[in-house]
# Entry
Amino acid sequence: MSRTNVKLTIATTDYDHFRDFRTGVVNAEGIDHTWLLHGHHEVFARFTLNREWDVSELSFAKFTTQVTREDSDIIGLPVICSRLFRFGSFYINKKSGIKTVQDLKGKKVGSPEWAHSAAVYMRGWMHNEQGVKLQDVHWYQAGANAPGRVEKVELSLPEGTKLTRVSDKSLSEMLASGEIDCAIIARPPTCFLEGNPDIVRLYPNFVEMEQEYFERTKVWPIMHIIALKKQLLETNPWIARNLYNAFLESKNRSVERIMDPAVSRFPVAWLPAYARRMRDMFGDIFPYGIEENRPTLEQLALYSYQQGIAHKHVKIEDYFPKGIMTKIVI
# Structure
């Protein structure tokens, strides 16, 4: 007897590691999907505000808010859309006299949103490892390179934390004018890209810092993960693992393309050699799963709770469907 497949809508940015699943080269057993491609800010906003699709890419920081609500209606998959180290994300105005991260005490520091994963990691690093507490900085929130960006999730800021929201200016404008001293921002501000001599990275040697940081902590920051509506699993609990399996196979095929030494599949010189170096450093060049990412997942869970983004500090397993990583040995 034939079975009718479950029909799901999925929305993400265009990633090579999702490509084979999106195009049907890889299938999720029992599932037919309609896949929508949008910029990640649009995907985040439309899923967060209206739950417009069943499965969605979501900022990890924004996910922690929504998944820790009472009677949350979403759950995660341990599928990583985007991950990046962020020591290169500190941009400073040299006129502020900042030489080290400790010099940010008493300064004005901006980020596009408080629940901005790149800034969450770096604020957490400052607070927990560098002695620069959340309350030591006057924080600003504004659009990165254009005014008007707003917070998308509810917050409960820690007592004593100062946050000023600016609606009519961008972080780039304020950094260039000296209205703020530093911006922690995923995309370089326009004033930096345009060569303003006063705007520089706090850590120009960020690659070396990030390599040392990973070797010491095994944390490789996750920016975006996959979330899905909980109601999907009420009648079909198998959906979660079948989706995960398809995402994983698609990712593995992408990694094979990147590491192929015989065929240049991407327009970047020496990419296969670089990818093999990354494999030697990380083991799995882009790991999915819970245990494979536990130090990173646990760090963001702590930081998002400390910063008033997550409603409660939960075990990592509570982010995902029960038994999602169960392995059956025959």
In short: The radius of gyration is 20 Å. The first strand starts at residue 6 and ends at 12. The mean pLDDT is 95. The first helix runs from residue 16 to 22.
